[in-house]
Amino acid sequence: MRPAGVRSPPTVVSLHGKDGDAERTFTDLDVQRHFLSTGLAVAAVDGGNYYWHARRSESTGDGSISSDTPPCDAGAMVTDDFIPLLGRLGLDTSRIGLMGWSMGGYGALLLAARLGPAKVAAVAPMSAALWLEPGLSAPSAFDDAEDWQRNDVFADRSRFAHLPLRLACGTSDPFSDADRAFVSAFPAAGPYDVSAVFDAGGHDVAYWSAHAGGQLTFLARHLREA
After folding, report:
1. φ and ψ of 98, to 5 deg
2. CA 74/CA 53 separation, integer angstroms
3. Is the pLDDT of residue 62 over 60?
């Protein structure tokens, strides 16, 4: 979704949640209500249930790991294939914004940490699917404890230096404790620009749709400064 008549608009890549797809960025989040006022292009791609990182196999709807899906690195697909494709389609991908919800919120944090501020102007996850230790994570989110450790955004927190972050999560969301722990551990001073919204709501479409506008406005502000 891109603003008409705008050449090379700044770009936000949105990552969907578990059992979702690219289309739900525009339907569940009701992005069309918000994006025109920001001047941004918003792009989404199907990433399966691989939790936006390299996996031996895909998670299934019942929380287990499929035995008949191939290995995949959905995160590398975004960084190595999708973002360059968007550039060829005329979008400004010199620095991007990242957003996502649930599984996609985790993915947005993970990719932002790996790409860094040279490529990511800001990141705005909602209800990020975070766990404080491997044993607490959903069985389908990681291949094993070593996979969790390789893709632990808590360990990558220093990579958010000079990379503005705004996280939104409902107070009734099951991920609220881990999300609070993630943002609260950043230093109050130094090269970090971290803000968070914890307000009434659960882990559902109503919350994400209500906060998508605020997240896009935050991303637009930093993309304009990029």
Report:
1. -125, 135
2. 6
3. no
Alpha-carbon gap, residue 142 to 56, rounded angstroms:
9
As given in the structure block, the two tokens for residue 3 are 């603003």
Q: Which pLDDT tens digit goes with each residue over 200-220?
A: 999 999 999 999 999 999 999
Q: Tell me the C-alpha distance between 46 and 82, whole Å.
A: 10
pTM: 0.94
Using the Cα atoms of residue 186, residue 190, residue 194 and residue 198 in order, give the sign of their dihedral: positive
Report residue 77 as tokens: 């697909």
CB distance 34 to 218 below 8 Å = no
Strand runs labelled E in 65-193: 72-73, 92-101, 120-126, 165-170
* Residue 131 three-state SS: coil
Tokens (6 digits) for 167: 């996280």
Residues 6+ apart with CB under 8 A from 29: 14, 101, 208, 209, 212
Euclidean distance between CA atoms 3 and 220, whole angstroms = 13
Q: Whole-angstrom Cα distance, residue 171 to residue 169?
A: 6
Dihedrals phi, psi of 47, to nearest 5 degrees: -125, 10
Distance CA 42, CA 164 (A): 18
